[in-house]
Every structure is written in C-alpha cells, then in structure tokens.
Design a protein that fits this description.
The chain has 209 residues and is an alpha+beta fold. The chain has six helices and nine strands, in the order αααααβββββββββα. The protein has two domains: 84 residues, lambda repressor-like DNA-binding domains (434 Repressor (Amino-terminal Domain), Orthogonal Bundle), CATH 1.10.260; 115 residues, Jelly Rolls, CATH 2.60.120.10.
C-alpha cells in the first residue's frame, strides 16, 4: 500500500511537471516569442529555458516565479489541474420569482467575471428586481424569445440573436416580452452581486456558490 501511494504521487508529480512545461511553451509561442526573448525577460539562459521546456531540466521554484511573471500569469495558473473535472461545468438550475438561473462559470473565474444563462418568464413580478444601479458594464445575448431591457426611461426590445451592452450606472432591468425569454449574460463582480445574489435571495450566488 505504501509503495502504491508513493508511485501514485510520483505519477501525479510527473503529470503536473509535463503540464507546466507545455503551458510555458504554449504561452511563449502564443506571444510570438523566441526562447531568447523569453529568456531575456526572466533572466534565465536560453539553453536552460530550452531544457525546462523539453523536460531535460527539473523546474525549480526560483525559476518558475520569473517565468510566470514574464508570461503574464501566476504560478497557481501554471500548476492548476488539467483534469476534466476542471473543464466540464454541469450547472444546476436555481429558480425564484419567474427566473431560472444556470451558472456557466465557476465562482470568481475569468478574472472575476460570471457567465450565466437566465430564463425569464412573463409571470415574474414587475418589481421583483426593480431598476438597479452599480459600477461597471453588462452584456447579454438573447438565445430565444424577446427580452425587454429597461434603461432609465427607455424600454428596448432585444430579440433572439441580438445582443445588448450598456453601462450599469444607468438604472436598468431585464424582463420577458410576450413570452419566456432565455438570455446568456456576462456579469462583473458588481453585477453578479447585485443581480444573481438578489435573485437567489440568500446573499450567495445561485447553486450555493
């Protein structure tokens, strides 16, 4: 049992090591940098950097820190798991006040941006959310039906296939027009807190997040 545990841990370390090397090389190539260009930015010789990328040299923490910084990422992002469980999101619906919400991103992912699918029905009380004002911008696209977007004194109908983007410093609310509407929306941290957590009514994001 002890030997199996040791072998499993060694396999996991090798997997993480391989993923880190692939990410370093991938990020370098995505920026159009040669080995020399990245080496100059992280103060590591091109030959050592080449050995790190190809697995001929073990990655030391004092090397990983400047490499991550030069590539505009973090050590956590370089070493995070590549398992399918970290890729596939299986959202659970949260229902209240004529709105069903599916969170399509993990909490605080994508630099604080939350992606959600919402299904709004006409039986949602008109004053369920009211007009909200908060810092930032909001974006949504209509998947089916017609959304009624209220921006201050204006009412704008956004139909299936169309999208809307607006400053959330303008009093705003989204409802359904003549039937259910499904939208895909992107919220920043302020929008997620004001809209999604109010929809859930618990002070937490829908789904207990």
């Amino acid at each position: 049992m002890r030997l199996r545990h040791i072998l499993l841990r060694m396999e996991q370390e090798v997997d993480v090591d391989r993923v880190v090397r692939q990410r370093i090389r991938g990020l370098r190539l995505a920026r159009g940098w040669s080995l020399d260009a990245l080496a100059a930015r992280c103060h590591i010789s091109p030959s050592n950097l080449s050995r790190i990328e190809t697995g001929r040299r073990r990655i030391a923490l004092d090397q990983l820190v400047p490499i991550a910084r030069a590539l505009g990422t973090t050590i956590d992002q370089l070493v995070e798991s590549a398992d399918d469980e970290d890729v596939v999101i299986r959202p659970e619906p949260s229902q209240t006040c004529g709105v069903t919400t599916w969170l399509l991103s993990r909490e605080r992912s994508l630099h604080g941006v939350t992606v959600a699918k919402l299904r709004i029905t006409p039986d949602r009380p008109a004053d369920a959310e009211g007009l909200r004002v908060h810092p930032g911008r909001e974006w949504f696209t209509v998947l089916s039906g017609t959304a009624r977007l209220q921006l201050g004194e204006r009412t704008i109908l956004v139909r299936a296939g169309d999208a809307a983007e607006f400053s959330t410093m303008t009093p705003h609310a989204i409802g359904a027009h003549e039937g259910p509407v499904e939208i895909l929306s992107i919220f920043d941290q302020d929008g997620e807190r004001v809209h999604l957590r109010r929809i859930d009514g618990t002070g937490r994001a829908p789904g207990g997040r």
